[in-house]
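Subgroup meeting minutes
Present: P.N., E.W., G.H.
Scribe: E.W.

1. P.N. recapped why we're keeping a running log of single-chain structure predictions: easier to compare across weeks, and new members can see raw inputs and outputs side by side.
2. G.H. added today's entry (391 aa).
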Amino acid sequence: MSLTHTGTIPEKKVSEAHFVNTRPYLEGVLRNNNTGEVIPNAPITVTDLKTGEEIQTQTNEKGEYSIQAVADTDYTITYTKWYRVGGKDVPVEFTQKANVNSGVTDETVPADITAVGIILFKQMDGTTELFNNLFTSQMHIYLKDKDGNYIKENGHLKAFPMAPNGTFSVEGLSEQKYTMEVRYKADTGEELLLKVTQLDVKANGELNISEELVDPYGTVCDEKTGDASTGKKIDGAKVTLYYADTQRNRDNGRIPGTKVTLPPVPNFPPHDNESPEQESDANGFYAYMVFPEADYYLIVTKDGYETHTSGTISVDFDIVRYDVPMKPIRSGGGSGGNGNTGTDNVGNELDDAPKTGDNSVSPIIYMVLALMSLMTLGFCLLGNKKKKHIQ
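Output recorded in log:
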């Protein structure tokens, strides 16, 4: 007896067997959410949860897989991806579920649509690390549907948990675009912002895989030597966080021009979210994990440099990295910061210091011109006296 199965994702197609097929098929597709592309020729493991039997297979060139299944059985489909973490390759498993109920015979059964992924943390040395359990135990995922409505459960926002290694798995989705928010819940109960991204579920039975990197570090650098990547890093610059003067802040009771106090975040380098002021470290790094949907600005001071005041930094649901280029004060011009970070000092604390590129006329030139005028007047008077003597 010869059986031919032609099921595809996302559409279901009837078997073209010459005889009745009494076995169901389990099908799905792997997709990279970051690129939107399917993942071809990927090895996967399908596990029968009733017997423990494992079946090794791989996706085809369209990212699809298909295996014969047994009715009244639950399955898991596992895909393993390797990540470069802490200087070594680490395997990370992503899993989706499937249920073939007892009434299924010759049908194609799609696996449950599942969004999975991993949140990696960029270290100060440029490498990536997995989040530790102390951090991920305070992290949650929230989803908005294509209409901007949060997914809820029992009338409350549904918070999907993170695994200890920073992976997540969200089930029960449909074919549409979602917005995913990653938040950190501080001990105070306040939620801070970590990451936002889009989930684009395109096919029934899809295992949609995301990879997100949290890079929270702004860099304070000497602008005469280069940018944040190439320039000299400034250690010990005082970075102060303020609420900006925006309608959004005023509508939410945030007073413009006041310093922002954030809850501490343990194991969040370089200073565990110290606020409203923190100093840049030896690499020039500072980092704030702030409240979402708010507007901020920074004032940065350092002896020997002009005070830097940023423009408005608007934060919605993603960490905004802001690098700080600082301008050295010309030799002999005095100190730049003097430790003053209040808004009442901004704009006048350096009034007496000559600015780099100042086009004003030097006082020495005025002195030279005055001396020349006096000499000319003296010659004129001397000439008049000589004329009188001749007469």
